[in-house]
Amino acid sequence: MMPDLGKYADTVLSAYAVSILLLIALVWWSIVAARKARRELDKVEGHRNG
């Protein structure tokens, strides 16, 4: 159920949209950084063990 936001509807909804986009970007960035760190760690451990 959507509350009546009156004349501020555009501002509030755009703030929600920007917040959601930023959260998605942060999650994506974290996943990419974790994968990169995992590859580098595997590479270092491979040299040490192999």
UniProtKB/TrEMBL annotation:
<feature type="transmembrane region" description="Helical">
    <location>
        <begin position="12"/>
        <end position="34"/>
    </location>
</feature>
<dbReference type="GO" id="GO:0005886">
    <property type="term" value="C:plasma membrane"/>
</dbReference>
<keyword id="KW-0812">Transmembrane</keyword>
<keyword id="KW-1133">Transmembrane helix</keyword>
<keyword id="KW-1003">Cell membrane</keyword>
<dbReference type="GO" id="GO:0015886">
    <property type="term" value="P:heme transport"/>
</dbReference>
<dbReference type="InterPro" id="IPR007078">
    <property type="entry name" value="Haem_export_protD_CcmD"/>
</dbReference>
<comment type="similarity">
    <text>Belongs to the CcmD/CycX/HelD family.</text>
</comment>
<keyword id="KW-0813">Transport</keyword>
<protein>
    <recommendedName>
        <fullName>Heme exporter protein D</fullName>
    </recommendedName>
</protein>
<dbReference type="Pfam" id="PF04995">
    <property type="entry name" value="CcmD"/>
</dbReference>
<keyword id="KW-0997">Cell inner membrane</keyword>
<keyword id="KW-0472">Membrane</keyword>
<dbReference type="GO" id="GO:0017004">
    <property type="term" value="P:cytochrome complex assembly"/>
</dbReference>
<keyword id="KW-0201">Cytochrome c-type biogenesis</keyword>
<comment type="function">
    <text>Required for the export of heme to the periplasm for the biogenesis of c-type cytochromes.</text>
</comment>
